[in-house]
Specification:
This protein is 40% helix and 9% strand. The protein contains eight helices and six strands. The strands form two sheets. Strands 1-2-3-4 form a four-stranded parallel β-sheet. Strands 5-6 form a two-stranded parallel ribbon. The termini are far apart.
């Protein structure tokens, strides 16, 4: 629920143990790593103004504690799985153009404590760990330029939010990735989550954007969709239709893009 205060020693001992357990299961299961979704749905875990003791502790004090918790989490994870990949649906890409400002207003941001937490990760990260910024904000990208600009943002500009002693690790171990929102290619034009295909079909626009995303990413591009499923699903809404029916040819187009990338 995102309601554990950063100064809560007992609460964070449980959270750290959860991370350790997830890493151990990933290691024993023979999978690449774990997926982390930092989005706050009920309480702003990373928002300073939402903290229970904001009146007693300054923003800097909370940042110091968030960094300590990040160190504790990463130490536990790497102890269980030294060469893990931690795929976060977003890391510093959530700040977008804000990093161009001389002093981003982190104290008032919903994710203002997140850079400190990531700095804690980097304090304790082992050399074999891979961190992935999934750039969930790419859902509405619709041009090659947008993907390239976001890749530059993540690789370079976002380092301004990283402590100087951790910037080398950040550049060496944080990968650029992009999320592709399939619903945007089937939603009506009046939807805020609609991608205009221009003079192309929605499938052709999706293929073009996938190509741009893969060209700009380091390794991963991920798909998310809500209105359909790829196989039988217990979700009643998604199970009504398959993506191959809602967006005919989507499975062939995606396979073609990936194969083209591998060949070139």
């Amino acid at each position: 629920p995102g309601d554990v205060d950063w100064f809560d020693e007992e609460g964070w001992a449980i959270i750290v143990d959860h991370w350790r357990t997830a890493a151990r299961v990933a290691k024993q299961g023979g999978i690449a790593g774990i997926l982390f979704d930092p989005e706050s749905y009920r309480n702003a875990q990373f928002g300073y103004r939402d903290q229970p003791q904001a009146a007693e502790h300054s923003f800097d004090e909370y940042c110091a504690m968030a960094r300590q918790r990040g160190r504790e989490v990463m130490a536990a994870v790497t102890q269980a799985y030294p060469d893990i990949t931690i795929f976060s649906l977003f890391m510093l890409s959530i700040f977008g153009p804000q990093v161009d400002q001389p002093s981003p207003a982190l104290a008032t941001s919903r994710y203002g404590l997140y850079p400190a937490f990531i700095n804690g990760w980097l304090d304790a990260v082992g050399p074999e760990v891979t961190l992935v910024d999934g750039c969930e904000s790419a859902y509405r990208f619709n041009s090659n330029v947008e993907y390239l600009a976001a890749a530059n943002l993540i690789r370079n500009k976002c380092r301004r939010l990283i402590a100087p002693e951790n910037r080398y690790r950040y550049r060496a171990q944080v990968q650029v990735s992009f999320g592709v929102y399939l619903d945007a290619y089937v939603n009506p034009p009046d939807s805020p989550w609609h991608i205009d295909p221009g003079d192309q079909t929605p499938l052709e626009r999706l293929e073009a954007n996938l190509t741009s995303a893969l060209n700009a990413a380091d390794e991963y591009v991920w798909l998310y969709g809500e209105q359909a499923s790829w196989w039988p699903s217990p979700h009643p809404t998604a199970d009504k239709v398959r993506w191959g029916d809602l967006l005919p040819g989507v499975d062939v187009a995606e396979s073609k893009v990936v194969i083209d990338q591998l060949l070139h």
